[in-house]
Amino acid sequence: MGPPAFDDAFIQTLDTLFAWRRDVRRFRPDAVDPNHLRACLAAAHRAPSVGNSRPWRFVRVSDPARRAAIANSFSRCNAAAAEGYDAARAARYQALKLAGLNEAPEHLAVFCDDATEAGLGLGRASMPETLAYSVVGAVQCFWLAARARGLGVGWVSILEPARVTGILAVPETWRLVAYLCVGHPVEEHLDPELERHGWQAEDPRGTELYER
Known about the structure:
The chain has helices spanning 8-19, 34-44, 64-82, 87-95, 130-148, 161-168, 193-196; strands spanning 56-60, 106-113, 152-155, 174-183. The N and C termini lie far apart (41 Å). The protein contains seven helices and four strands, in the order ααβααβαβαβα. It has one domain: NADH Oxidase (3-Layer(aba) Sandwich). By secondary structure, it is α+β, with helices and mostly antiparallel strands. It has a four-stranded antiparallel sheet, with helices on both faces.
């Protein structure tokens, strides 16, 4: 069987999916369909990876005590981050909702297995960071698959990676890349929340193609 033909209607729908992929912080308590979760993980496993290493390791965090400890890590880091701004900017920062840790029905910690032997090191001898970049690609595939199924995803980066690794008792060679909150969004918006709440305007430089 040859490759599928992607017509204009599909391309337009795909562009719409990209546009509506938002970082979600407000979740309904409804449980996530386990079949949808498995399908999103399967999509993540189709991501490109350096040397076909597939170094991503998804950990579902269900234990309430571990969730609470990770939420405490967020609170510490969030308070410290606010102290790095002047008074006016700090007040605006503190008014933002930057995580859905207390509401999201699903928490997923995504690690890079730095000790993986898969791929035999191909493609990363001179750029070892591409192993972690591969995990980011898997997160993006998961995110788009979730959005297509009506789920929202929020990437929580205001955390202590070593602390999270210890809380979850994963191997020492696993490096935290992403902590994801997953669930059904309370609200839908086309624009990013940080733009909507006046934290920053869109930076157009990312849409430019630089020539050399």
